[in-house]
Amino acid sequence: MNQAAINLIVFAALVAIIWLVSKLILSRNILHSKEQKHKTLTEDILKQLFHVQQSNRIATISNLSGALKIRKAKILPMVVQMTKAGLIETVDDTILLTEEGKAYGLKIIRIHRLWEKYLAEKTGYKAAEWHYLAEKMEHQLNEKEILELSDTLGNPLFDPHGDPIPTQEGDIAPVEWIPLPTYPLNMPGKIAHIEDEPGVIYQQILAKRILVGSHIKVISSNKNEIIISSEGQKHIFSPIVAANISIVPLSKNEAYEERAERLSSLQENQWAEVLGISKECRGANRRRLLDLGILQGTKIKVDLASPLRDPIAYRVRNTSIALRNSLADLILIKKLNADENT
Amino acid sequence: MTSQHKKDSIAALANRLRWNIGDNFHDKLTEGIYADAADIASRAVHQQGEPRNATMDSKIDSIVTSKTWGFPIMIGILAVILWLTIEGANVPSGLLFNLLIDTMYPILKGFSSQLGIAWWIDGLLIDGVYLALAWVIAVMLPPMAIFFPLFTLLEDFGYLPRVAFNMDALFKKSGAHGKQALTMSMGFGCNAAGVIATRIIDSPRERLIAIITNNFSLCNGRWPTQILIAVIFIGVLVPDSMSGLVASASVISIALLGIGFMFLTSLGLSKTVLKGEVSTFTLELPPYRPPRVWQTIYTSLIDRTLIVLWRAIVFAAPAGAVIWLVSNIEIADISIANHLIEWLNPFGLFIGLNGVILLAYIVAIPANEIVIPTILMLTVANLKMAGLGEGSGVMFELDSAMETSNILSAGGWTLLTGVNLMLFSLLHNPCSTTIYTIYKETKSWKWTTVASILPVIMGFVVTFLVAQVWRLFL
């Protein structure tokens, strides 16, 4: 074989090795110490137990093993150690959290949700990546860092999925959500929570551009499909997907706007009035829209579409501002009839 | 109650009330402030007369952003500007060259020999520093003085934001900002100016992408190298009547390849190291207005051309000294340059280049303009060719491509060397002016290092692959 071919093969092998090594380093197993792994597993078990008790189910070694995808032989010594440490107690084969264990579990949940909130507000990570990143971070912050994080975020009460964030003292806001499949027909409500696990279903919900905080009405609901109308669009869900979306009825001071639509659906030569910016438009993007004067009551119309129809320029306050369609999806408007446009 | 008790009970009350105010009260508060501000402004600001007539604007817009004409107009304008720059710079460049190198240089040399200045001072200052400065000014000033005012005129007219508007959908696919189309085009003039121009990108992530990938725009310091090598090595492959066309086509494909690498690298960066940086997009399309020609020419000369030229001069002067020193200091009767060339040769030949080219790119980091003169000088000195060049450490260029070609083939250059030099000229570290500018703009050693090292690595990989595949099949 000639030299050039050998060089190419050696090069390909080098690239493959570098790729493998970087993969290994990125996967968390290789760099973490034994203590760190032990801590992570303890905290994962506490968190899982907390969720199980919240939903009034019973935790055993076998269903822990199933939920965490860890062999029973590995869970058993953990349970023994954690009982000794006073975090859990066992009654027959049921595992229960002690007060101390519950507080610890709540702390982990607090970090997880605070970190998701941080990722949503202050970074450019996509919604589908938040959970995975928070799963890593929840085992790494100390008390001081948690307080600082909470402070920078303005001590938020809810995470970006709508879950309440436990406070420093261990209080957690009560939630009165109704799962979408059982929500009454034609009753105005808003999306309170979108479950981010399992990822497959969450991806499907994200793909429909359903947003936490959107107002909805259920149009029809049966065991095959659930149809909702929200912000000028109809969405069809299978019950298994709908079960991961939770609704709360609107409170007294929230008005259901029948004509609400998204700015991205505005046609040319039509005026509209801005109703507001979705809760899911956060951080720098939200501030930018406010800076541009896109506020409740602002008149807006399509000025110009680019050759590929994204972005589209809108006329706001006598200025032409181009927005990408993904951002225009987060602005709620009410189309104006000819006589309203004065 | 003690004051501590009071504090505690207030804190407890605050904590209880938190649950009642809803989870988005920060947003509500901000929006309230903005709404009040808008209300105050609408009451306090009075507009005299009618708002300007926007029909003319929308007529222009409906053409320059239309599906049919948007892209052709854009490409046409960029092509015309580049053509005007390259063609138009020839005459003033020639004049400057004549003045600074053909006339001033011998006068300075004569003057110094009359004064009896030691040969090494004369060599270091006149052959080294002065010649490098003169070269950079002669080659760099005219194209920049043409390119930037033209660009600024388009900006002033209001056309450039429409380019960003048209191009955004394409740039968005690689995680970048539509305005990167502008900084990229600016990079065709000068990468340092392109990096400064990224200030128009207000989203942090997209701005970093634009800064790091600006080097993939073939700047005007590199166009002459590309054209010369294309004429010498690629133009001769076809009959004479076609050679000009084929040479230009190969230079244009290198520039297009650069755009391809720009998109690929943008995508790679946004998926890896820049993942998670905040990203926003809003773009204001200002009304068109007649450009203020004189003011534009003045500011673009001062703001862009002269600043960049000054930085280039500051870096070129020491480079001239280094080039002269490595060629004239001898260790064991062989100049440092020749030692380095011998040392770099194995690796250079391995990736289809040679030691001279690598050394030229190292000592000519300050300015791409002096790469070819340095290569010629080093080749002649390395081969000890008699009767060519001006002596060791003195850069030169030849009037005819034929003579240049003779020197290069004597230096062992082949078609592969030519092709790989064109690729390496596209894919190598930014010049030191640009590196310094990147540091000034990002204030981060990390991103400066990434922006400097990444293209060189890509250059090595690409030239290596081309060389191996070439040797495998040809």
Q: How would you characterize the largest beta sheet of chain A? A: 6 strands, antiparallel
Q: Into which percent range does the helicity of residues of chain A fall? A: 40-55%
How confident overall, as mean pLDDT of chain A? 87
Radius of gyration of chain A: 25 Å
Total DSSP E strands of chain B: 3
CATH class descriptor of the largest domain in chain A? Mainly Alpha
Approximate shape of chain A: globular
The mean pLDDT of chain B is 86
Question: How far from one another are the termini of chain A?
Answer: 81 Å
| Principal-axis shape of chain B | globular
Order of helices and strands of chain A: HHHHEEHHHEEHEEEHEEEHEEEHE
Residue stretches of chain B low in confidence (pLDDT < 50, at least 5 long) are none
Description:
Chain A is globular, with a radius of gyration of 25 Å. Chain A folds into three domains: 3-97, Arc Repressor Mutant, subunit A (Orthogonal Bundle); 178-249, Ferrous iron transport protein A (FeoA) (SH3 type barrels); 260-335, SH3 type barrels. With 342 residues, chain A is of the alpha+beta class. Chain A is built from eleven helices and 14 strands. In chain A, helix 3 (61-68) crosses helix 4 and helix 5 (99-122) packs across helix 6. By secondary structure, chain B is mostly helical. Chain B contains 19 helices and three strands. Chain B has a two-stranded antiparallel ribbon with strand order 2-3. Classes of the chains: A alpha+beta (342), B mainly alpha (474). The interface between A and B is large, with 57 and 52 residues. Strand 13 of chain A pairs antiparallel with strand 1 of chain B.
